[in-house]
Each structure stands twice: as structure tokens, then as C-alpha cells.
């Protein structure tokens, strides 16, 4: 079992904690510790968790504020905290992201999607709940909608790369994008690499944030025309562009500033 599949669980409720342990033990994860409070993992005598370990925190039974997540990061550098919450709370999600959480999951999720979501975190992705899509539709836009031609001129992105960037805003993996655009997954991968290079960003999440912050909007899903996904493929959820920008993770430039992202 590779280190990036390790997980620790923090949950005060014994039945819930044991249930999570059993679910994850029977899949692709190795449960290293199961604690009833964050304090058990932040004590001086607590064994240090390997870098890349997921720390699943049940916010419904344990207090999980910014200080808690930061304390966990201090005690175990390199971990990837994931908050498991009873209901979606936009402000709480923002706070979790600001404090260093890699995921915010609502308990309405079933076992298989939960495991798939944690797999994404194990591979370095940040994951957010589908409920965020409904919230973002009711919140003010980050800025005026950009003219695609202006974006292309300022970034040297091709029309197809802009379209893929709009799918990235929606949180779509390469497999889903390839089906929507009727191109191969390998071709999507090549375009994504080109997008990252041209925008001078490190990953697809940063690219999506840049796009939304510079006036691009995500592609809309038409249920009637959306192709069926292969068994086991996680349905995409929009990237939390507003949330991550609000979290001050990166100071994003405007198109007139030269489209460079500070290191």
C-alpha cells in the first residue's frame, strides 16, 4: 500500500468511526490511526503521519475550525486534511480551505463516491461538494464576462484550449472533457499541458481559477446531450473558483498585467 493512500480518521462517534475504518480498509486505503479527537493526533507523543496521509475529520462530532487544521499541519507536515460535514456551509468551507484543507465533503455522499473523492485527494487534487454549484449560481460573478478573442490574444491560447479551459472551470477530468468534445483523452491531456504552460500555472485548479478570475465561464451541462460516463467515473463538480480566490491562496493578475502567476 503506497504512502499516498494512507489515511487517519478523527471522529468522536465510535460507531461512525468504526464504520469509516471498515469502509476504507475494504477499499484502497490503509487506516493508520483512528482518533476520537484532533488532540490525539497533535500530542507530542503522537506518531508522525507520513507525508501525503489523508486526515478525514468528522466535523459533526469534532470541532474542526481553522486552528484545528493548522495544528494538524504543524504536527504532521505534508498531510492532506479533508473535512466531512453534516451539511454544506459556504463560510465554513472557505475557512477550511484557508486553513489548508484539501477537501470539504458533505455526508450525503454514499460510500463509493466517498472513496473516489478521497482517491482524488490522495493524488493531490482538492475536492469540493456538488452543493457548491447551486450556491455559486446565486452569488455575484467574479467579474465581467470576457471576450474569448481577447483572452486568446492575451494568452496565445487556441480556440480549443479555451474551450477545454471552460470545462476545467466545471471541474471536469480529462475523460469527461474528451467525451463532451468528442476527442481522445490523450489529446485533452496534451491541450491541458499547453494551457498550464501558456498561463504559467502549476495545475488545472490554478488554471480554472485564473480563467474564472479573468472573465471566462464554465461550460453548462445539458443532461439531454451529456454522454454517459464509464462505470466508476466520478461525476465532475465545479471548481470552487470564488472560494479559492477568497482564500487568498494565490494573488491572480488581470489580463492587462501580463497573465503571469507569482511563484
How would you summarize what this structure contains?
The chain is an alpha/beta fold and 263 residues long.
Number of E strands: 5
Order of helices and strands: EHEHEHEHEHHHHHHHH
Total helices: the number is 12
The first-to-last residue Cα distance is 33 Å
How many domains? The number is: 2
Q: Structural class, please?
A: alpha/beta
**CATH T-level topology of the largest domain:** Rossmann fold
Strand order of the largest sheet: 2-1-3-4-5
- Main β-sheet description: 5 strands, parallel
Low-confidence stretches: 223-231, 240-263
Strand content: 5-15%
* CATH classification class of the largest domain: Alpha Beta
Q: What Rg, in angstroms, do the CA atoms define?
A: 19 Å
Overall mean pLDDT: 78
What's the CATH architecture of the largest domain? 3-Layer(aba) Sandwich
The proportion of residues forming helix, as a percent range, comes to 40-55%
Domain HTH luxR-type: 150-215
GO molecular function, one term: DNA binding
Domain Response regulatory: 6-122
Pfam families: GerE
Write the layout of secondary structure elements.
Elements: E1 6-10, H1 14-25, E2 30-35, H2 39-42, E3 54-58, H3 66-75, E4 80-85, H4 90-98, E5 103-106, H5 111-122, H6 131-138, H7 148-155, H8 159-169, H9 174-181, H10 185-199, H11 204-213, H12 241-246
Parallel strand pairs: 1-2, 1-3, 3-4, 4-5
Helix pairs in contact: 8-10, 8-11, 9-10
Amino acid at each position: 500500500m503506497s504512502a499516498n493512500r494512507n489515511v487517519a480518521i478523527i471522529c468522536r462517534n465510535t460507531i461512525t468511526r468504526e464504520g469509516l475504518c471498515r469502509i476504507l480498509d475494504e477499499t484502497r486505503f490503509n487506516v493508520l490511526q483512528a482518533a476520537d479527537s484532533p488532540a490525539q493526533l497533535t500530542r507530542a507523543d503522537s506518531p508522525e503521519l507520513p507525508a501525503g496521509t489523508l486526515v478525514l475529520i468528522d466535523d459533526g462530532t469534532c470541532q474542526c475550525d481553522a486552528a484545528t487544521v493548522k495544528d494538524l499541519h504543524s504536527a504532521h507536515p505534508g498531510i492532506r486534511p479533508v473535512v466531512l460535514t453534516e451539511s454544506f456551509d459556504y463560510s465554513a468551507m472557505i475557512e477550511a480551505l484557508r486553513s489548508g484543507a484539501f477537501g470539504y465533503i458533505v455526508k450525503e455522499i454514499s460510500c463509493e463516491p466517498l472513496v473516489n473523492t478521497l482517491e482524488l485527494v490522495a493524488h493531490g487534487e482538492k475536492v469540493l461538494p456538488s452543493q457548491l454549484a447551486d450556491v455559486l449560481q446565486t452569488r455575484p460573478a467574479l467579474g465581467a464576462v470576457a471576450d474569448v478573442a481577447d483572452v486568446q490574444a492575451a494568452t496565445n491560447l487556441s480556440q480549443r484550449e479555451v474551450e477545454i479551459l471552460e470545462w476545467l472551470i466545471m471541474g471536469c477530468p480529462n475523460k469527461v472533457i474528451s467525451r463532451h468534445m468528442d476527442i481522445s483523452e490523450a489529446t485533452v491531456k496534451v491541450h491541458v499541458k499547453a494551457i498550464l504552460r501558456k498561463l504559467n500555472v502549476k495545475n488545472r485548479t490554478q488554471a480554472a481559477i485564473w480563467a474564472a478570475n479573468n472573465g471566462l465561464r464554465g461550460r453548462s451541462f445539458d443532461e439531454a446531450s451529456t454522454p454517459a460516463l464509464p462505470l466508476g467515473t466520478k461525476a465532475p463538480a465545479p471548481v470552487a473558483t470564488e472560494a479559492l480566490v477568497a482564500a487568498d491562496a494565490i494573488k491572480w493578475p488581470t489580463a492587462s498585467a501580463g497573465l503571469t502567476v507569482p511563484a
